[in-house]
Amino acid sequence: MNFKFLVWTLVLLLPGVLRAQVTVSGTVRDAKSGETLPGAHVSIENNYKVVATNQQGFFSISNLKKGTCLLKVSYMGYKTYEETLNLTSENQKADIKLERSTIMEETVIITSTRASDETPTTFKNISRKELTTINTGRDIPYLIESTPSVVVTSDAGAGVGYTNIRVRGTDITRINVTANGIPVNDAESHGVWFVNMPDFASSVENLQIQRGVGTSSNGAAAFGASINFQTQSLKAEPYAEVNNSYGSFNTWKNTVSAGTGLMRGKFAIDARLSRISSDGYMDRASSDLQSFYLSAGYYGKKDILKFITFSGKEKTYQAWTGVPSSLLETNRTYNPSGKYYDAYGKLHYYDNETDNYQQDHYQLHYSHEFNQNWNANAALHLTKGYGYYEQYKDDTKYSKYGLPNYTHNGDTLKKTDLIRRKYLDNDFYGTTFSANYDSRKKLQASFGGGWNKYDGNHFGNIIWMQYAGVIPNNYEWYRSTGVKTDWNAYAKAYYKLTSKLSLYGDIQFRGIKHTIEGIDDNLRTITQEHSYHFFNPKAGLSYKLNDKNQFYASFAIANREPNRSNFVDANPGVVPNPERLQNIEAGYHFNSNSVAVAINGFYMNYKDQLVLTGDINDVGDPVMMNVAKSYRMGIEASVNWKICKKINWELNTTLSRNKIQDFTETIFDYDNYVATARSLGKTDISFSPNVVANSNLSWEALKNFTLTLQTKYVGKQYIDNTSSNDRKLDAYLVNNLRMNYTLDVKKFPELNFIFGVNNLLDKKYISNAWVGRDIEGGEIVTYDGYFPQAGRNFMIGLNMKF
Q1: DSSP structural state of residue 325
Q2: What does the alpha-carbon distance between residue 174 and residue 166 come to, in Å, rounded to a whole number?
Q3: Across the chain, how many H-helices and E-strands are there?
Q4: How far apart are CA 82 and CA 337, in angstroms?
Q5: How far is CA 473 from CA 320, 433, 463, 591, in A?
Q6: Cβ distance 217 to 229 under 8 Å?
Q7: What is the DSSP string of 456-479?
Q8: DSSP reduced 3-state for 592
Q9: How many Å apart are CA 765 and CA 734, to the nearest integer?
Q10: What's the rounded mean pLDDT across residues 781-800?
Q11: What share of the chain is helix, strand, coil (3-state, %, to 5)?
């Protein structure tokens, strides 16, 4: 760094540092009884320092600048207290009296599955306000991509349609996702497709990302992270909002939402209706997405009964195949999906090469507060999914569909053109429950669990054939079922051993039974049954040196069962092992008035991690194999710096090392129909960049007008596990610019304007790819597909609040 620049920076900042400082202190009490309230959260608006009252209900916040500020105090079961203070002296008293809330708080619904400031694990909270400032229709992964260790990608190249997310290099099938404590991951595949939940962000109150194993939750264990959503909470006053956005690639987002507010002091209804459409950056990568959200709640002083339903319906043109490496320089937006040739050799693209799916979620939550120390929650849930994807297949063998060859006038045809649909029809239902105890002094504890069942049908129909003969319409060539039951029970406790040292313990028991019956799409019989019982313990400690400095450390074990494809794709008689993870987290937090720093180290030691090795099964499909030992280790650092009243800078960086201890690559030789194996020793885990960094620099240039420059750097990634430089994605640096302006005029709707330019410098980069290799004709043949992302593009949005 230039020395003169550093000196001048210090000179400019020094007056603010030397300016007279003020300390605000006081006691928080119950307004009726006068009892002090230990553990109440006290904060100053636009200040990173948040303190909790001690055992006597006392708090103190020092080093505040003179002038006006907003003091906020919150405590479970009480109304949030706000007071504007005029700081004029060096020491100022602010004795607070909190009034009990007349209705129960909705936060109790997710309390048992969330980490708190005292929990010794690594996490990040994102509020509704933060999501609203960036929500112009792109999928949820893109709304949270600035959080530490996150890398996102989009099949269509612009963040609408099929998108994906990795945290610490871990893909979505190993990330635990819940909505109001209800599992969202598909029970069989373990995946989450946010395209089935379009504009879900518009109904999210807040979310928490826990990195690593995290705390016990419902659903499959987190092997890299967990994402916990809380949907919209009660708004006391009636409201209506209309949000419209338009941008590049003919992308539209239209959202209408409204709520009744609290009616008769007890009831509230909230609703949202959304549509998102886009042509996509890639050729024919269009999306037509529709969704709604509806909630109806009863809010009593000690009870909440709330029904929530949300649904998403999507139709997307397939862009899953990617661009072959040979065309990246000449035809970057090439999409081979739907490509076929007619009898005269003329190239066509099938118009309905689409994915069509609808997913409906139903949740019924009940919460009850027994007293100020105990509350309990119970929920029933049902998720219904139905859909298919349609494909045109030219010159395809009848035998692949269990059909005889077609004979006409003495001529025998072994192949035909056809259109097929592959369907998924499933139900996922069950219950979750929890009980929470807070002594208000030293002990906090949660007990909970859940029971869930998945019942799915997989089948495929041929809806058209060029030469069908006597084959019936909608001929079904395969059908299989999957039935999976999953139960878990957990107990977790946080105990304040001293005023500075706290201990945390967390145990979870989980049982799974997975039954698969029938025939797969390659005509293999896949009937099998698997059962597992897992014990997942976690423990940690937190040491709070003072109001500014806190340290934590934890150790956790997680076990995870293989998913459906791991079982189905394996060769007969081969059963993949469950995976096991040992996770160590250690970190440090510093919070002052203008700076917040979080630094943590992690070590994730895997046993029997399932990875692609290049091996295939007996019908030529790729399979995932267990590797005995692998690990991820690294450092994550975040800094939030309020440089001055108008300028705020958020930065985070992850430096990591991600290795398989002894990797064996398999290449199949089709000339001799044998597999050849080659030991490569220690290699990098695929899609695990060693460096991920984010910067968000915000400037309030005018009142209610903010400019934000977002910068993201992702280091090189290997496409497979061989660490081969000819199979890697180059590092990339991308800048986005966003402008937010709020016009709030009395007697008129509040207007919020958003204008964003993504990939400001028009960087050509690729965020995802796949690769496969085999031996044909004595030579190694490589098959691949790359997913280029859009160059410079824009979105503009207008939100009206009534």
Answers
A1: G
A2: 9
A3: 4, 46
A4: 57
A5: 28, 47, 6, 68
A6: no
A7: EEEEEEEEEESS-TTPPTTEEEEE
A8: coil
A9: 9
A10: 96
A11: 5, 60, 30
The whole-number pLDDT of residue 362 equals 98
Please give, one letter per residue, the 3-state secondary structure of 503-536. Answer: EEEEEEEEEEEEEEEEECCCCCECCEEEEEEEEE
For 5, phi then psi, to 5°, come to -60, -45
User: Are residues 82 and 71 in contact, defined by beta-carbon separation less than 8 angstroms?
Assistant: yes
The amino acid at 750: E
Please identify which residue in the block is written with the tokens 């054939």.
465
Q: How far apart are the first and last CA of the chain?
A: 49
Contact between 556 and 537 under an 8 Å Cβ cutoff? The reply is yes
| 3-state helix/strand/coil string of 340-387 | EECCCCCEEECCCCEEEEEEEEEEEEEEEECCCCEEEEEEEEEEEEEE
Amino acid at 433: F
**Measured distance CA(147)–CA(742) in Å, rounded:** 25
Rounded to 5°, the CA angle 490-493-494 comes to 150
* Residue 400 φ/ψ, nearest 5 degrees: -65, -15
How large is the average pLDDT for residues 542-553? 94
pLDDT at 195 over 80: yes
Q: What is the DSSP letter of 564?
A: H
Give the confidence band of 68 by pLDDT, cuts at 50, 70, 90.
confident
Residue 771 corresponds to which amino acid? V
In whole angstroms, give the CA distance from residue 786 to residue 700. 39
Residue 154, beta-bridge partner list: 163
DSSP character string of 728-745: EEPPEEEEEEEEEEEE--
Place of tokens 């003495």: 410
Structure tokens belonging to residue 50? 């948040």
Q: Distance between CA 754 and CA 245 in Å, rounded? A: 9
Return the SS3 of 567. helix
d(CA 279, CA 254) in angstroms, rounded, equals 16
Bigger pLDDT: 643 vs 46: 643
How far CA 351 is from CA of 158, 199, 348, 390, in Å, comes to 21, 26, 9, 10
Cβ-Cβ contacts under 8 Å for 515 (sequence gap 6 or more): 481, 482, 483, 484, 528, 529
* Beta strand ranges found along 232-279 (DSSP E): 239-247, 251-259, 267-278
For tokens 């239209």, the residue is 254
pLDDT band at 19 (very low <50, low <70, confident <90, very high): very low
